[in-house]
Amino acid sequence: MTHTEAQELDLAEQERLVRKGFWPKLRRLAARLPFAEQALTAYYCAFDRQTPHTVRLTLLGALVYFVVPFDAVADFLPLFGLADDAGVLSAALLAVGSHITDSHRHAAQDALGRLKAEQS
């Protein structure tokens, strides 16, 4: 699924895909995913009902791209597989950065700490 295809999904379908695939993928990759905290921050902002609709759509589109196994560069390729996911997520966060709150960041940091503790 390309980023454009992900953006064309309606909000409910994007939410369903992200809720289903985000945590399993993040649990699998958290220890070695350099952008895990950013992914978590995007997740918490996207599912915050106070976040404006267009911001939620932007973040959910990037998170769907992260979650789906078929994107521009296969995730299993060492070093390169997640680079496109990081790029899409970074671009989305840059676009909507003013809507990221301290509570989103703190929730992301707490969740990452728990994930890393689980993996120890």
TrEMBL record:
What InterPro entries does UniProt report for this protein, alphabetically? DUF1232, UCP031804
State the annotated membrane topology for this chain. Answer: Multi-pass membrane protein
Subcellular location field: Endomembrane system
Q: What is this protein called?
A: YkvA family protein
Pfam families with a match to the protein in the record: DUF1232 (PF06803)
Which stretches make up the DUF1232 domain?
A: 56-90
Chief place of localization:
membrane
Q: Where are the transmembrane segments?
A: none
Query: What are the alphabetically sorted keywords of the record?
Result: Membrane, Transmembrane, Transmembrane helix
